[in-house]
Amino acid sequence: EVMMALWTVLAMHAYLKKKKIIFVVFATLMLLTKESGIVLLIAIGCWILFEDIYLNKRKFYNKELILRCLYLAIPITIVSVFFIIQYFQQGWFFYPEHLKMVTLTWPDFHGKFIASYGFLFEGQGRYMLVIMFFVAITVFWKALNWHERMFVAVGYLVVIRIYLDYWWHLNAKLMIVLMLIVLAKIFERTFVKMYYDTKEKGRVILLMAFFSFLYFCFTAFNYISFRYLIAVFPFVILTLLFFTWHILENRRWIFYVFI
Q1: With CB atoms 3.0 to 4.6 Å apart as the test, which of 1, 14, 89, 248 could cross-link to 19 if both were Cys?
Q2: Distance between CA 184 and CA 205 in Å, rounded?
Q3: Chain-wide mean pLDDT for the chain?
Q4: Nearest to 240 by CA among 109, 113, 110, 125
Q5: Cα–Cα dist 226/229, whole Å
Q6: pLDDT mean over 161-171
Q7: Does the structure show a pLDDT above 70 at 129?
């Protein structure tokens, strides 16, 4: 898991620095270390589409977009050779015992999601980072009006503290849709707003947030083990700290008090 985290961080860094060859090398090593590394490539692919089509209002079919997506396929193509060889030698692409541990039912997903959330965002005092993050947004971020700030705070409490803790047994499909809508609006009011305020910092935070969310959901479907979260751990911490640091740019003492 430590090697997986290392290759993931290095691959993300190479992508953000636009070092394509280095990115391919680290992404390939990441996939060879553990198949779950595909989540990073999916996150980058989703981010590319989201930035070009939604944020920058470009056409879906353009040469730059296609080239950016195609080079993501290079590590997958290289690793596919390994899986093909493994299939002919062992008779399977992915280890069958691990596939049996994947669960797609809502109760299983909910239980593992809550356990992972508790470890990642609340365990070992990390709840202070989350509190700092939302205090910075709702109290000190002047880019949002008061209605937007209250929506972010209340929306978070509804999704995490009320829905996931108390209402999870209600109609699963309806509640999942409502949860995703609230999360999408929070995402738009915070991370997308950050992107428009400062593109250079915003795209880094947005991409890390994309990956963190997708990887978090992936682990909730998979066999739960907190060590699996090591790969996403740096990105969650950096996202919370980076976002808060930007908001408290003129009030650094508050940031240091929280830390």
Answers
A1: 14
A2: 16
A3: 81
A4: 125
A5: 5
A6: 61
A7: yes
* 18 half-sphere exposure, CB direction, 13 A CA radius: 4
Give, for 9, the enclosing helix (H) or strand (E).
Answer: helix 2-16
Host H or E run for residue 92: none
Query: Over the stretch 20-60, which tens digit does the pLDDT of each residue have?
Result: 899 999 999 999 888 888 889 999 988 888 888 887 777 76
Is the separation of the CB atoms in 208 and 154 below 8 Å? no
Contact 79, 33 (CB under 8 A): no
Alpha helix locations (H) across 101-230?
106-117, 127-135, 146-156, 172-187, 193-197, 199-221
The residue whose two tokens read 């299983």 is 108
* pTM listed for this prediction: 0.82
Length of the chain: 259
Cα 242 to its chain centre, rounded Å, is 15
Rounded distance between C-alpha atoms, residue 193 and residue 174, angstroms: 28
* Residues 205/33, Cβ–Cβ less than 8 Å: no
Cα gap 235→251, rounded to integer Å: 24
Per-residue tokens: 103:
């669960």
Quick one: which of 173, 156, 153, 174 has its CA closest to 165? Answer: 156
Tell me the torsion sign for CA atoms 159, 246, 65, 235: negative
Instruction: Please report the pLDDT score of residue 226 as a whole number.
Output: 76
CB 46 within 8 A of CB 210: yes
Q: Which two tokens stand for residue 219?
A: 């682990």
